[in-house]
Amino acid sequence: MNKPRTGRRMRTRIWAGLAVLTGASLVLAFLPTVDRPVRANASDAEGYASPLEVLLSPDGVRLYVLCQESEEVRVLDAASYVVIRNIAVGRVPRGFSLSPDGARLFVTNSWDDTLSVIDTKTLAVTATWRVGAEPSSVVEDNAGKRLFVANRISNDVAVLDAQTGSEEKRLLAGRGSSYLTISPDGARIYATHVYPNPPPMRTGLENRTAPESEITVIDAARAEVVDRIPLHGIAGVFHGVFSADGRLGVVAEYHPKNLVTLAHLEHGGAFEDTITVFGADVGKTVEVPLDELERYAAQPFGVAIAPDKSRIYVTSGGSEMVTVVDVPRLLGYIHKHPGPLVQDLSASANYVVTRIPVGLNPRGLTLTRNGRTLFVANRLDDTVSVVDTRTNRVASTITLAGQKTITSIRHGEQTFYTSRYSFQGQIGCANCHIDSTFDGITWNLEPDGFGRSIVDNKLLEGVKDTEPYKWTGTNPNIPTECGPRTEKYFWRSENYDNLTLADLAVYVRSLPPRPNRWRLANGELTPSQERGKALFERTVDKFKKPIPEVNRCSYCHSGPKGTSQKIFEVGTRKPTDNTGLLKAPMLTNIALTAPYLHDGSARSLEEIWTVYNPDDRHGRTNDLTKDELNDLIEYLRSR
Amino acid sequence: MKKFSLFVLFLAAGTLAFSAPPTMPRFRFENFTTANGLPNDHVYAVLVDGDRIWAGTENGLGLYENHAWKVYTTADGLAHRAVLSLALDKRTGDVWAGTMGGLSRISGGRIDSFTQLTSGLSNDVVYGVSIEGENVWIATAAGACRLNLETNQWSLYNERNTPMFEIWSYSVSATPTKVYYGIWGSGVLEYDQKTGKWDKYDDPDGETEMVLFKDQGLIHEIVTSVSYVDNVLWAATYFGDSHYDGRYWHNFLKKDSGLPSNFTNVVKGVDGKRAWFGTDKGLAYYDGVNWAVYTPSLKDGRPEMTVRDAEGNVTPVAVTTAPAHNYILGIDFQGDDIWVATAKGLSHGIRQKQ
After folding, report:
1. Which of A276, A319, A443, B127 has the maximum number of C-beta atoms within 10 A of its C-beta?
2. pLDDT tens digits along A278-320
3. Which of B92, B108, B119 is the closest to A604 by Cβ?
4. Which of A545, A590, A597 is nearest to A570 (CA)?
5. Nearest CB to A627: which of B117, B151, B156?
6. Is residue A177 included in any domain, yes or no?
7. Which of B117, B156, B160 lies nearest to residue A611, judging by beta carbons?
8. End of a domain among A510, A545, A562?
9. What integer pLDDT is reported at residue B2 of this predicted model?
């Protein structure tokens, strides 16, 4: 008779003990501390979170964290950092924003071309809308009528009905349209882009001209492009932001020095890491460096301005820090020094207050309304740094739930993005391979000689098993490509240890190709692509004459990735080239990667054959009509 | 009482016999030439975009805004200095310019150009361009083209996949339901947006300059301009003009209409009944019944306006201004005003109260 009572007591005690333990562990787990990382979830879920962007709700109560790898929005209590909800969204989310009233959270899912609409009261996805190719950022206008979505692949900003998601139109933006910000008065939307715009004119030297980018200015009420602010010499423009009074705009950007041989890292000869400031406070558009002689702010990405306009905060994904700029000093310096500032590595000492070390690959950032706390998403260590802006120090670090063991791929990715291996921490792989892709510009690399062998930068996704590497095919494998060559000629610094190099190679090999947007959803080819495929595979020309093997598209570009991995001479050698022998490049997502040919001299796929194949050495194509060449290109786009 | 009735009848007959000409629009023409900022006097096309006027000239694209001209040239990225055709994407505000060396898109001050070497464009000589939805429809010297702005896919239409016998496409007018092409020597081509099928309208008299079958089809095979508005097709040729409402054709010839010449470069419909015609001998307006012609005199250059009523009575109207030249190449509307591209300048016809 006692047993049940004893059992009940025991069970009660066990439950009570468990409750105390759980409560204690919850308290321990969720209390933010300065000294140790704060866990933001009790579970240790599989996979990494990879926080890319952070947002605060208008009332400052919630912290939204966009996690790219776990493909979710994590909603945290902004005071305790306790996870309130994890909301699953689409594939590879890249951007998010709140409606002006904070009632809805919009998430762009870059790999499935959708927009998730989240009700911030219920924290549930209420709608998923189809949008353009690779949506990367979204903002709603102040009237709540329209949504603007930056589409990276279609190079435009789509205008959607904010209530139904139906697309009204698309506005031409810069190439790789990716980030949007709205002016505080809601009148203008500013769009930036990550790849430089194509040169407008045929000069024969357009592959050796400085990159040009723009800030696309959209009238929010008319939903029309009303201006394009030119950004000379810039290739890769990321987040932009405005001061609360709307008088100061800032964008973060890369300034590559691709017209000189990449051999002068010790002289700052690869990249400048800059911001461009504009607006009434500046009076004109001014590019200013964030770098200094011994310290570089590699891969600037996120930018925020303090509510009182005293500070600008810029994340540097490669340098793993936040640069703090004193705004009055910056404006004073600009007004005093009207000349170009970008090449002056002593300039930043006049306005950079400090540099705050944060986590690995810091990206998005957001400030509390009082400006006292800055949250920084550290993508590659699954943390959010909480910065006290009065001390400019990390007060605490929120550790997001997820895989804690560092896999080879993860370590390789960290290695890929960091700039710590290069001389003075100037550059990382991701400087030229933006988001692990490419940069749309051509370079002159030292190993081939100064002024020799200009090369176009190639897409990395899908490079696994397409060796040999380099345009000339002289590197037999990825470790050779990423190891001795990179260390010696690019980094000019310490070597990778064997493990790091192996992990870097594993990461590069792991990069999957993004979905091909020119292929039909059912995998079938369009009639035009079908006709193009037949031309690609043909063995006789239109005059019934057999085409030699080396002049057939399908011979050199064979296999699932469109490369036979063999070396050919296709008649594209230039006087500056050391050799005309080139490895047949893979065709995966070829539509994305203009310019073309080894030296980027073909601005479009068409030019490969309309300009650079006069003798049919790069495939038998001169018997084709224009319609047929268009069909061939449509097929290539589907690869 | 009888006398009074006779008097009324006499008065009525007198009124009919000596009635005033029909009231037709009157304009005060302000003309632009190189003397006041136009990049070149040879103006092939004009486009109205609200308060902004675009002029496609032989030497650059002019934009008239706030009483000043801005000129875009090849140095700005324009495909070629000679701009033959213009179209406005009303959704985005982008302007498309067909040139002698390719197609250019002007968007927020940036110019992107497409040529037969750099893109899928069938030919660099772009005579006509028209925007409908996400598609840009293009008339070139080597067939018709369509560029889908969402997919960047080019579709080419020529003798191999349409009933186009000649490929010299001179004009295009695209709407959500139909797209019409005027083909120089091959009549009018019709594309049905719903079915994706092509149809063709020819001169029932064949490729001759005779008109044996009037009002039974297109007036001539050499079509220079098409305008599709209110489900009505207006087609201009070098040998007269045509109106087609989907069932009936009506032809206009100088001899039996108010056209100043059969040689018509451009037609632009106001609606299904009214249209403007640009000929080699002046600008003509048809209101569905009556005609008016505006031109500098071919003899002495003095401004002229004539009105022709339904009975064929032609009445001169005293005017003090006229279009810059009698050779009219382009027409566009700005409210009640009209803008006219001519061989020697651009003209702004400012509608006068009557």
Report:
1. A319
2. 999 999 999 999 999 888 999 999 999 999 999 999 999 999 9
3. B119
4. A597
5. B156
6. no
7. B117
8. A510
9. 53
Q: Which residue has the tokens 């070390």?
A: A357
Does one domain contain both A542 and A608?
yes
A vs B, Cβ pairs < 8 A, gives 82
Q: Does A595 sit behind a cis peptide bond, omega within 30 degrees of 0 on the bond before it?
A: yes
Q: pLDDT at position A556, please?
A: 97
> What is d(CA B190, CA B187) in angstroms, rounded to the nearest whole number?
10
User: Distance between alpha carbon A503 and the CA centroid of its chain, in Å?
Assistant: 21
- CB nearest to B110's CB, from A168, A228, A528: A228
Cβ–Cβ below 8 Å for A172 and B150: no
Average pLDDT, integer, range A534-541: 97
Which residue of chain B has the CA closest to A609? B117
Kindly indicate the confidence band of residue A639, based on its pLDDT and cuts at 50, 70 and 90: very high
Tokens of A178: 């990716």
Split into its structural domains, chain A has a count of 2
Whether A449 is covered by a domain: the verdict is yes
Selecting from B108, B151, B154 the residue whose C-beta is nearest the C-beta of A216 gives: B108
Which of chain B's residues have a Cβ under 8 Å away from the Cβ of A200? 76-77, 111-113
pLDDT at residue number B103? 98
Q: Is A610 on the interface with B (CB under 8 A)?
A: yes
Q: List, in order of start, the domains of chain B with CATH numbers.
A: 42-291 (2.130.10.10)
Instruction: Supply B158's token pair.
Output: 């020529």
Distance CA A169, CA B155 (A): 21
To the nearest 5 percent, what fractions of chain B are helix, strand and coil?
5, 50, 45
Same domain, A495 and A551: no
Q: Which residue range forms the structural domain that includes residue A609?
A: 527-637
Tokens (6 digits) for A592 = 């994305």
Residue A611 belongs to domain with CATH number = 1.10.760.10
The count of C-alpha atoms lying within 13 angstroms of the C-alpha of B110, restricted to the half-sphere facing its C-beta, is 25
Q: Is the pLDDT of residue B220 over 70?
A: yes
Over residues B49-66, mean pLDDT: 97
Mark yes or no for CB contact B118/A626 under 8 Å.
no
Single residue among A480, A510, A540 that ends a domain in this structure: A510
* Peptide bond before residue A468 is cis, with ω within 30 degrees of 0: yes
Residue A518 near chain B (CB below 8 Å): yes
Half-sphere exposure of A41 (CA within 13 A, CB side): 23
Residue A428 lies in a domain: yes
| Mean pLDDT rounded to a whole number for chain B | 93
Q: Report whether pLDDT(B303) > 50.
A: yes
Residue among A130, A239, A233 nearest A193 (CA): A239
Q: pLDDT band for position A339 (50/70/90)?
A: confident
Residue in chain B lying closest to A172 (CA): B107
Confidence at B3, pLDDT banded by 50, 70, 90: low
| A225–chain B Cβ distance below 8 A for any pair | yes
Which residues have a Cβ under 8 Å from the Cβ of B235 and sit 6 or more positions away?
B180, B182, B188, B201, B218, B219, B223, B225, B226, B227, B241, B242, B243, B244, B267
A583, A563 contact by CB (below 8 A): yes
Contact B309, B18 (CB under 8 A): no
Q: Answer yes or no: is A541 within a domain.
A: yes
CB contact under 8 A, A626 and B120: yes
Band (A565; pLDDT cuts 50, 70, 90): very high
User: What residues of B are in contact with residue A532 (Cβ under 8 Å)?
Assistant: none
User: Is the domain of A574 the same as that of A540?
Assistant: yes
Q: How many distinct helices (H) and strands (E) make up chain A?
A: 11, 33
Residues in chain A with CB shorter than 8 Å from the CB of B49 are none
Q: Is the pLDDT of residue B139 over 60?
A: yes
A635 interfaces chain B, CB cutoff of 8 Å: no
Query: From A201, which residue of chain B is nearest by alpha-carbon distance?
Result: B77
